[in-house]
Write a structure and sequence with these properties.
The protein is α/β, with parallel strands linked by helices. The chain contains 10 helices and 20 strands. The radius of gyration is 24 Å and the shape is globular.
């Protein structure tokens, strides 16, 4: 094919070549797309890691991750339980916005053969990154629907290996099947050998990284533990000073170390943003801790929703740093979109791009002024700056409230999180201006996202199938 102007107009061609040099130089200077690794624990408490003050669990690899990166003190899950928090991480939205705050049966997480799942119209982190050429894998607990239409491979993940819901969901009385271990969309083991899950997840994760080391990748590793029942492989079982809980946490620490070593060996550390966090707080039993916070999993106290979060990206995130600004799991999608060049979903989301916080930019502040604490369908608390207001709960429906001993609900309470992490001192009478603001925010949340049975104007529906089938081992 004749190139116009090359033969007939050589001087013009030279000028074109000269002008093209800066453009080529600019293209060469564009930073490569970073890899993303999200390690997402199940029920790991705020006080369960050495770098967050634990003296019970040995977590040298995660502590090293903290020394090499940034530790967040005010990082939140959007929910105190599994399914809603995972929906938020995937979509950047409050669970009520995407209809994933409870099962259609009223159960507060999805159960086996649930007809509900994440709507295909919602854009997940994986789907957004795939538009930029990323390889994607989900290895671990999914819990956003176990029907074929709701599984990870239908929501942007090239690979899936793990369990479709919590490891305690095999109740014979309810008709649950044996706990399935799934590869892609096929059950390969039932019941899953839980003692070896963390080890096998780690092997799968490393294999994925090695297979995709030359192109950008997104590894989502939602661990099964330390959710009850607790298991650990023979190398860790009975070896901690904190019972089976410590065994499972220390094996997760080992797993984290193996993944970091793999990144180092492949010279990918400075090209990879690693996030380590949890879906909600510890249940406070069997050795778990949310110290110095009050409350536990299932609660809208700080211990139920404020979680550990560590971010490492050598050369980009300042080593040994701490961030005390408010951020949440809803920020993963918009931040990854920004860093990868992917477009944000063309619908309303609730998370923010927190790059400035991650990079320690001068005068970087939280993009949040307000955080809403939902428990299932009910708005139970609001944080505005450092103030947190616990709404008065008059209803006593067992699925919606946290009743007092009298069974009559609870009184409203304003606390100052700067000085009262235990949330014990009501200062509402001293701050009428703050209370006025809180009531306006409650009205705003109710109008947009809903509260109890009142639907919000901005809510979107989850996907609910007309029927469902259990995931069982095929013959």
């Amino acid at each position: 094919m004749k190139r116009h102007g090359f033969v007939a107009r050589p001087m013009l061609a030279q000028w074109i070549f000269v002008l093209a040099l800066p453009l080529a130089s600019l293209a060469a200077e564009q930073p490569p797309k970073p890899n993303f690794v999200v390690i997402f624990c199940d029920d790991l408490g705020y006080g369960d890691l050495g770098c967050y003050g634990s003296t019970k669990n040995r977590t040298p690899n995660i502590d090293q991750l903290s020394r090499e990166g940034m530790r967040f003190t005010d990082f939140y899950s959007s929910s105190p339980v599994c399914t809603p928090s995972r929906a938020s991480l995937m979509t950047g939205c409050y669970p009520r916005r995407v209809g994933m705050h409870e099962d259609f049966t009223g159960h507060w997480v999805l159960i086996p053969r649930s007809r509900r799942g994440l709507n295909a119209e919602e854009v997940t982190v994986a789907e957004a990154l795939k538009t930029q050429g990323y390889a994607t894998a989900c290895i671990g607990k999914w819990h956003l629907g176990d029907q074929p239409e709701h599984q990870p491979t239908r929501h942007g993940f090239d690979q899936y290996y793990g369990i479709p819901y919590s490891n305690d969901m095999q109740q014979l009385k309810r008709g649950d099947p044996p706990l399935p271990l799934v590869q892609q969309e096929k059950v390969i083991e039932a019941p899953a050998d839980q003692a070896t899950l963390t080890q096998r997840y780690t092997e799968q994760a490393i294999a994925f990284i090695k297979a995709n080391h030359s192109n950008p990748f997104f590894l989502y590793l939602p661990h099964t533990f330390p959710h009850l029942p607790l298991f650990a492989s023979p190398a860790f079982h009975g070896k901690s000073a904190n019972g089976r809980y410590g065994d499972s946490v220390e094996e997760i620490d080992w797993s984290t170390g193996e993944i970091l070593r793999c990144l180092d060996e492949l010279k990918l550390a400075d090209k990879t943003l690693v996030l380590f966090t949890s879906d909600n707080g510890s249940n406070g039993r069997n050795g778990g801790s949310n110290v110095p916070l009050s409350g536990k999993k299932g609660s809208t106290m700080e211990g139920g929703m404020r979680v550990p979060m560590i971010a490492r990206w050598p050369g980009t995130i300042p080593a040994g740093s701490t961030c005390s600004e408010l951020a949440t799991t809803m920020d993963v999608l918009p931040t990854f979109c920004s860093l990868s060049g992917a477009e944000l979903p063309r619908v309303t989301i609730d998370g923010y791009d927190i790059r400035r916080l991650l990079t320690g930019a001068e005068n970087a502040v939280s993009p949040y002024e307000t955080l809403f604490y939902y428990r299932r369908r009910q708005l139970q608390a609001v944080r505005w700056k450092d103030w947190k207001y616990h709404l008065e709960l008059e209803q006593t429906h067992p699925n919606w409230t946290t009743p007092t001993q009298t069974g009559k609900g609870r009184a409203g309470k304003l606390v100052d999180l700067k000085t009262d992490l235990q949330e014990t001192k009501d200062v509402s009478q001293q701050h009428p201006d703050v209370m006025k603001r809180m009531f306006a925010l409650i009205e705003q949340a109710t109008e947009r996202l809903g509260n109890d049975d009142e639907q919000g104007s901005e809510q979107r529906e989850a996907s609910t199938m007309p029927s469902s089938s259990p995931m069982v081992l095929s013959n």
